[in-house]
Amino acid sequence: MVVYIRALYYPEGFKFPMKIIDERILLTEFFRELATLIMLMSIGMFAGRKAIERFAFFIFSFAIWDIFYYVFLKIILGWPESFMTWDILFFIPTTWIGPVIAPVINSLMMIALSIAIIFSVEKTGKAKMGIRIWTLLIAGSLVVILSYTIDYSRFILERFTFGELFSATYNKNVMEYVTKYIPVNFNWLIFAVGALLHAAGIYMVYNLNLRKKVLT
After folding, report:
1. Any bridge partners for residue 96, and if so which?
2. What single DSSP character describes residue 168?
3. Mean predicted lDDT score pLDDT of the chain
4. What are the CA-CA distances from residue 92 to residues 30, 32, 199 (Å)?
5. Tens digit of pLDDT for each residue in 160-178?
6. What is the pTM of this model?
7. Cα 194 to chain center, whole Å?
């Protein structure tokens, strides 16, 4: 789907600024992303025996999918040119934009977390995930999402109000304005805070469930 869209709208190769995409194509892409999430959640549901295992298999499969998404785009299209190439990551619930290396880092974090959880269940029969761990993981995820969306959202809200963004009257104006957006600086500080929160949560999972087993 991504290859088809880029062949249609970016035959010279994907780069910013974004181009106006037909509403039917954009809606199809939205449901493609939603279907991908449902598919990956289904993998977790079928692979895991317990709720925490299902969560672990879901984020593991999501991370592998995300990494190989770029691997195959590189093989097929020769894109991205580097890990610092800008990309549109998601359209749900708003547009996420960042350099390719950022979601790859997130994926590696997800793989580390999923392995810690799965090994915990295999070694001890359960994986302890207290409120502090969940707080770190959820807060980290929200901060990372903020790093992907803050610059684009600021750009849009400089011109339109929330009400106008959801108004059919302004839809064409919004789409035309979006084509002027060119990302320049990624907020690495916000991203790093989110990544550190994730790393702290992963370490706590390991420390709480596996450290004593490894030492003994």
Report:
1. 90
2. G
3. 88
4. 7, 11, 25
5. 877 776 665 557 787 788 8
6. 0.87
7. 13
Measured on CA atoms in the order 55, 86, 17, 144, is the torsion positive or negative? positive
In this structure, the chain runs to a length of: 216
Output the CA angle 100-92-26, nearest 5 degrees. Answer: 90
CA 22 – CA 70 distance, rounded (Å): 24
Q: Which helix (H) or strand (E) holds 147?
A: helix 131-157
Least Cα distance to 85 among 76, 73, 68, 95 occurs for 73
Q: Distance between CA 195 and CA 140 in Å, rounded?
A: 6
3-state secondary structure 44-110: HHHHCCCHHHHHHHHHHHHHHHHHHHHHHHHHHHCCCCCCCCEEEEECCCCCEEEECHHHHHHHHHH
- The predicted pLDDT at position 216 comes to 47
Strand partners, 135: none
